[in-house]
Every structure is written in C-alpha cells, then in structure tokens.
Design a protein that fits this description.
Blueprint lengths: L1 E5 L4 E7 L5 E8 L3 H15 L5 E5 L18 H12 L5 E4 L1 H8 L7 H18 L12 H18 L1
Parallel strand pairs: 1-4, 4-5
Antiparallel strand pairs: 1-2, 2-3
Length: about 160
C-alpha cells in the first residue's frame, strides 16, 4: 500500500492507494495548531498503518514571497509531522514526489495558474475514484483540492513504483 500525502499547515490531504493504482480510501486532516495537527496525524496513522504503507509525500517547498500563500507553521512542518509519525510506527519507506513530476504525469501541461491546476487535479482525482469504484469527491468538502492532490500523488507514486 501507498499512503500519499499532500502536506500543508491548515489541511493535509491523504490517500491510501493499492500498488496497482486503485484508490482504497482518502480524506483530509485539518487543524490550526501544530499540536492538534500532530495529534490528528498520529491518530490517522495508527488507523491506516494496519495496511503497512509506503509514504509518498509531496516535497515541501516554502512559498514565502509577498502575495503568495504563506503557511502558519514553518515551511515543511506538516511534512515533518507525517514522516515522524510514520517512522514511529516502523514505516521507513519514503518516496518524495515533486509537484512538477506528479502534475506533469497526472494532469499534463498547459494549466496556467493555481486555480486551473486545482480544477485539473480535482477532475483527475474524480476519474481515479470512479475507476476504483468509489464515490466522487464532494465539491463542498473542506480541503477538496488537498485530497484531490493526494489522490494524484498516490496514483502517480504507484505507477512510478511499478
């Protein structure tokens, strides 16, 4: 199994994917405090690691220029929490996925702007969920784009591992 994560400080999308690329389950972890985020990730990892997963995580890249979204936590904090929690459970298989690589493979080129990339990722994630026999993502879901990106990361990682 592959546990794919799109880490961010406010909401981290996650997805559990079979080695053949089919999605098993997915969701989002939301929190506004570091301790609460760590606690929620710890609880989720405890529940998911019965499957014995490799962690595929998007490489953290801080965006701190003026006018661009800035995390409440230091850059890479959420990614570090995920990695630490999984290592605490004995999972040391780690696959760092760059945003450029998974986007190129999963949604293609030509999506200009952040919103266009998010829409394309959501569309691709819904296609992957349908192919796996799971319901599509709820458009009203909080953290929708984070979950969609985690699904894309997981399916990309499964294909890369073959």
């Amino acid at each position: 199994m592959i546990l794919a994560v799109d880490p961010s400080s406010k909401s981290s999308g996650w997805c559990l994917v079979n080695p053949d690329g089919t999605v098993v389950k997915c969701g989002v972890v939301r929190a506004t405090r570091i301790g609460l985020m760590a606690s929620r990730i710890r609880d989720l990892c405890r529940d998911l690691l019965v499957y014995g997963a490799t962690l595929a995580i998007e490489r953290a890249t801080p965006q701190t220029r003026k006018g661009i979204y800035r995390d409440l936590f230091p850059a890479g904090m959420a990614a570090g929490i995920w990695i630490a929690e999984l290592q605490a459970y004995g999972t040391h298989d780690l696959l760092l996925v760059t945003p450029r690589d998974w986007r190129k493979a999963m949604i293609g080129k030509g999506h200009r702007g952040r919103d266009a990339k998010k829409r394309a990722a959501i569309q691709r994630a819904n296609a992957e969920l349908s192919a796996s026999g799971l319901p599509r993502l709820d458009p009203a879901m909080t953290g929708l784009d984070d979950v969609a990106e985690a699904i894309c990361i997981g399916v990309y990682a499964a294909g890369r591992a073959k």
